[in-house]
Design brief:
Distance between the termini: 13 Å
Shape: globular
Strand content: over 45%
CATH topology of the largest domain: Jelly Rolls
Number of domains: 2
Radius of gyration: 22 Å
Largest sheet: 12 strands, mixed
Length: 417
């Protein structure tokens, strides 16, 4: 008897997914310098209060609780392929993330019991620590010791260092290829420095290397306009009057990745009697679509909105949008930890549409320091937009769930009956 994770309204999940994806399919010795601004957010396919499941690239996996096959307790969690043939870029990911306050500056062991059945490529446990300037500062996904085939319950572990300035610790399980894997009885513990680090990623991550990588990341984001720390007091230029990426005091424009990319006012396609902003991509991107969205954003002080739920909306018109067009928002605290977010991932604009108002809703908790929001175009096509609005909806929504927790939870993978 299987019990699937219940779907829920969730504000954000798995900024970790693309970081993990690159680490999975590239050398573990390569630094990953993608920022949140590169990838934005990816919503989970299924969710409990604490664990999130994500199909990466294609919907070829499922996940849930299994009350019959378990190591101990009343259930285990599993990931299983749904098709006989799996795309080479696909994998199923089960994870949670939290603020590692009690683990900063220490060596951590993440352990679990895993059982597999006819796994063709690999199943594994993984763990990753991030800092604000260096996503994937420490990482191991058992790439050098994958679990393959059919195996009984066995203990596995990854050991990583958590930097002093870490703002996120993510961990979980993944399955690549066909088959099924069960996971149970997770533990996270501090170990002494004599305990060897696992995997190969740490071999490049000396203190000097981390400092150099952080400097490169800061320069890279500055060049792309994503490390602009200017915090404006309140939303500005929401109707884009006389807008220009080069001169706007409020809006920032992301990188134009390819010839044929553009972000500018369009006087040839009016909304009413006004020129809207146009985001356009004419040619297919060479990089994965998630890594080179066309984006705009402004970052505003959250003080006036604290303790409220707000709606952010804009007028959209789309033409031949191959993947998605959407509004996105990111709410953070003083540590730059995401505490609420949305990006229309489950209701994005696709194809061609007439003018319509689209919206997202986010909580602005009392600890919020800034709200960053804007439009995003993924893949080829054209998006026109105008008339952004930020409106209060009243009190916070207590049902909103976020992917980033204060502490890890339900490590025993128990099913609440």
């Amino acid at each position: 008897m299987f019990k699937y994770f219940r779907l829920g309204a969730v504000s954000v999940c798995c900024i970790a997914v693309l970081y993990f994806y690159q680490s999975l399919y590239s050398s573990n010795t390569q630094l990953n310098l993608l920022s949140w601004a590169d990838v934005h957010y990816s919503f989970p396919d299924e969710v409990t209060n604490t664990w999130y499941f994500k199909n990466v690239y294609a919907k070829e996996y499922e996940s849930g609780f299994d009350v019959e096959t378990k190591y101990q307790g009343n259930a285990s969690a599993y990931i299983a392929s749904k098709t006989a043939v799996i795309d080479k870029n696909s994998f199923g990911l089960l994870m949670q993330s939290f603020d590692p306050i009690e683990y900063r500056g220490q060596r951590v062991k993440i352990a679990a019991f895993i059982k597999t059945e006819q796994v063709t490529t690999k199943a594994a446990l993984w763990g990753r620590a991030d800092t604000l300037l260096l996503p994937t500062a420490s990482f191991d996904n058992m790439s050098d010791r994958p679990i393959i085939g059919t195996t009984e319950w066995q203990p596995y572990a990854v050991v990583i260092d958590v930097p002093e300035d870490a703002n996120n610790l993510s961990f979980g399980f993944y399955l690549v290829g066909t088959g099924k894997a069960w996971f149970d009885d997770v533990s996270i513990s501090v170990v002494d420095q004599t305990t060897p680090l696992t995997g190969t990623y740490h071999q490049t991550m000396t203190r000097e290397h981390i400092a150099s990588a952080q400097q490169q990341q800061r320069a890279r984001l500055t060049n792309r306009g994503f490390y602009d720390q200017r915090l404006i007091p309140s939303p500005e230029q929401l109707n884009f009057d006389d807008f220009s990426c080069d001169t706007s005091s409020s809006w920032r424009c992301g990188r134009l990745w390819h010839e044929g990319d553009s972000i500018a006012l369009d006087i040839n396609r009016l909304y009413g009697n006004k020129a809207p902003v146009k985001l356009e991509r004419l040619h297919e991107a060479a990089l994965p679509a998630q890594a080179n969205d066309l984006v705009m954003y402004q970052k505003v002080n959250a003080t006036a909105f604290r303790g409220k739920r707000i709606q952010i909306s804009a007028i959209f018109r789309a033409q031949d949008v191959a993947l998605t067009a959407s509004i996105w928002a990111r709410v953070v605290d003083q540590h730059d930890t995401v505490i609420s977010a949305d990006n229309m991932a489950n209701r994005a604009v696709v194809g061609s549409t007439n003018w319509q108002r689209v919206s997202i809703e986010v909580n602005i908790p009392d600890e919020a320091t800034s709200i960053t929001f804007g439009p995003k175009l993924r893949g080829t096509g054209t998006l026109w937009l105008d008339s952004f609005k930020l409106e209060s909806l009243g009190e916070l929504d207590p049902q909103e769930k976020i992917w980033h927790q204060i502490h890890p939870s339900n490590l025993a993978l128990e099913l609440t009956l």
